[in-house]
Amino acid sequence: xxxxxxxxxxxxxxxxxxxxxxxxxxxxxxxxxxxxxxxxxxxxxxxxxxxxxxxxxxxxxxxxxxxxxxxxxxxxxxxxxxxxxxxxxxxxxxxxxxxxxxxxxxxxxxxxxxxxxxxxxxxxxxxxxxxxxxxxxxxxxxxxxxxxxxxxxxxxxxxxxxxxxxxxxxxxxxxxxxxxxxxxxxxxxxxxxxxxxxxxxxxxxxxxxxxxxxxxxxxxxxxxxxxxxxxxxxxxxxxxxxxxxxxxxxxxxxxxxxxx
Length: 260
Known about the structure:
The protein has helices spanning 14-21, 45-55, 65-77, 109-116, 129-142, 162-182, 206-216, 236-239, 243-250, and strands spanning 2-8, 27-29, 84-90, 121-125, 189-193. It has 260 residues and is of the alpha/beta class. The longest helix is centred in the middle third of the chain and has 21 residues, at 162-182.
């Protein structure tokens, strides 16, 4: 079995990419395995961990991350007959293998372990962080995080708190740069930008499909199409109700281009 980690922030296109890859004959997208919404379901990590602790309660303590990861990989091996399995790990879920002591700027242990065992990593980012933020706001308002049809999205505009928006952009920009730093000099990682992902018809671009095929040693990745639709229009003037206010707030910042 080949396990691959898809690392990204929320609302960066992992659901769309994962749904597409899951249609491949040799790739199984396992979703957000560290999400608390599916604790009682396989292949959720916490579902696995509960069983592991029942066998040996020392696994409930921080530490022995390598042993836990080995056993989790073994657990995932029996979940699907497809050879390549992709786990979706959001930035905010990377801490679950950290030990007793871990500094706020230290590399997450699971990333160090991935490098140690040469685990393939797809690092997906979205350059337009403002659109990421708006997508999250609309998902929360609609209580729809992965829409298969536009009819599921009742609300398509949002009013933004300009101070919170700028603070969020600064914080997330820092997070993305830290993740790039953690993954520097690692040969078994590909960096993909959301803006590069899809053609207008919803299938992967040649550039992205070739990167994934090389990483996972598969072919014909580009043939499938995402089953999800975007939450918001790319025309932010139609989406942001207080567009001019936000535009003024972001003017003279590194994020000003994201308005257009």
